[in-house]
Amino acid sequence: MLIEVIGNRSLPDDVDRDDVEDLLTSVLGRDGEVTGAGVGMGGWHLDVEVSADPEQIERLIQGLAIALVGQDLGWVVLRPEYEETGEPAQDLV
Question: What pTM did the predictor assign?
């Protein structure tokens, strides 16, 4: 299953998209991986492919959210493919 990680604004000067990718990779472990990335006008995104059982998906999303909030990135949106819009990480913890 795909989870889109959406940054609707620029990252802080001391954090780059690779840092966010490394953070998410460490949380996912064997249950997923970052498979794509992109940038656009004032924003960026990462594509995360998760291979966990459906009942584990919410746990993984919450783990990603906790990690993002822990790095002061609670404004980053997590959007699972089954949702039209996602939610900021800070609203998922």
Answer: 0.92
User: Three-state SS for 72?
Assistant: coil
CA atoms within 13 A on the CB side of 67: 18
User: pLDDT digit string (tens) for 31-63?
Assistant: 999 999 988 877 899 999 998 887 888 999 999
Backbone CA torsion sign across 84, 8, 3, 39: positive
DSSP states along 2-71 = EEEEEESSPPPTT--HHHHHHHHHHHHGGGEEEEEEEEETTEEEEEEEE-S-HHHHHHHHHHHHHHHHHT
Q: Is 42 left (phi over 0), alpha (psi -120 to 50) or beta?
A: left
Burial class (CB in 10 A: 0-12, 13-18, 19+), 2: middle
Report residue 76: phi and psi, to 5°.
-70, 135
Q: How many residues does the chain have?
A: 93
